[in-house]
Task: inverse folding
């Protein structure tokens, strides 16, 4: 799943790297002969870049490992190291934009959701469609909460989180309305209002939540 907020952050950090390179000055001395950029800004940039790599690619990714290895700078000035680190961030951005940086957490979460939706389908097929709707609804709300975490949105009632994600541009109004309808069916099942929905409604609900999760986890 591509998070536009993280993609934008890659662009911001690449631009900041260019600005940082503009602070380069030549120093000559017994211990510091070469070109150096502003060290305080350099340290801050590295911290922000590492944080982005963790969020977008994960700590076990090759991108993060390469960054932490190259930042040590056993040889060369911080200006020279910055050139290498900037290239690594550009490479990570390309892979992230192409969908090649799914974190282990995302993969595990997707497997958990698949398992729970399979359980909901099994209950549905055995005549327990209200229970199936409740389980599918839990998957929906958990996905919404996860997306809020990624966007820095505070958890709250599902309607509020749904609205906030739409305002943040995570999905459009049509998807917002779909989420509202799915949540309404879950609430009816949870409150025993079984006469207000059918087995077919729950079957469609599971299919729609499965698509929703697949597109966003």
Result:
């Amino acid at each position: 799943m591509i998070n536009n907020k993280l993609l934008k952050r890659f662009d911001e950090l690449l631009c900041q790297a260019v600005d940082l390179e503009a602070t380069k000055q030549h120093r000559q001395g017994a211990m510091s002969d070469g070109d150096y950029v502003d060290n305080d800004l350099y340290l801050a940039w590295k911290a922000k870049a590492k944080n982005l790599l963790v969020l977008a690619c994960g700590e076990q990714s090759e991108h993060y490992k390469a960054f932490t290895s190259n930042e040590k700078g056993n040889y060369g000035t911080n200006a020279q190291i910055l050139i290498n680190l900037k290239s690594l961030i550009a490479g990570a951005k390309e892979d992230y934009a192409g969908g090649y940086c799914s974190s282990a957490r995302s993969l595990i979460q997707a497997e958990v959701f698949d398992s729970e939706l399979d359980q909901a389908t099994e209950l549905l097929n055995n005549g327990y469609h209200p229970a199936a709707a409740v389980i599918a609804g839990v998957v929906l709300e958990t996905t919404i909460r996860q997306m809020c975490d990624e966007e820095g949105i505070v958890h709250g009632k599902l309607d509020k989180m749904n609205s906030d994600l739409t305002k943040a541009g995570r999905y459009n109004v049509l998807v917002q309305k779909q989420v509202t309808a799915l949540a309404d069916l879950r609430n009816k099942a949870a409150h025993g209002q079984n006469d207000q929905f059918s087995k077919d409604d729950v079957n469609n609900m599971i299919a729609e939540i499965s698509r929703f999760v697949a597109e966003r986890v």
